[in-house]
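INFO batch 0412 | record 1 of 1 | parsing
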Amino acid sequence: MDFDTLFAEWKTKHGFNAFIRDGIVDPEHYDSPHILFVLRDMNCQSERDLCADLRNDGSGWKTWNNIGRWIKALLDGTEPYPRSIPKEERIRQISRVAVMNLKKEGGGSRTDGCALEQAVEDQCDLIREEICLCNPDIIICCGLSSAGMKGNAVLLEEKQVLTLVESWESFHSQSFDREWYYYRAVINGKRIPIISFCHPQVTNLQGARGHDKLFEPLYRDMLHIREMFLNTADGGDRRADEI
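INFO prediction complete | emitting tokens
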């Protein structure tokens, strides 16, 4: 199955009015290791091709500036922190990865947790197929559990989109007094890490705000994720039969 066939089936099966197409942003620039960012839904009331938007203008800066920074940390592993992300640089960075929303029907400015959870439960097979088509080596789930809403990584596990091959584990943040949690799942025969991380539009984490106290420390944590999962022999690219 390819993306066109998958999305045609998805729209037909669920009768969406505002279907949001996503996936590999630019196949010609999909860098290895393959990174997939999983978000919740999109603030949009009409049908959209998110990948085309990202290739053309980098989409909205509130979400994609930070994702652009995180991509640089994960794929390039370089300092210093890129405080400024001009449009051209944002497009260049985002073109190197895959992105997907768990809920394919466009929504409002705030995610409805019940609708999101129901969408993942009802469409788990289709979500799994899209993840397989993206063929990631690591998945960054952008959205933590809070205020009764389950985090993206939790939903992928609980709704049986992905099957754990190891129990949840954690590693300590490089900047904050907190843990980041992850597990591993097998996708296309590869054992890969699924990281539960904050949403890129986060404005306050443990009282930290702004570039110096929030966004730059999150960048350092992404550099640490690169070291832990993408720069080591056990970085998540082992075959399932090696487990």
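INFO post-check: Confidence is low (pLDDT under 50) at residues 238-243.
INFO record closed
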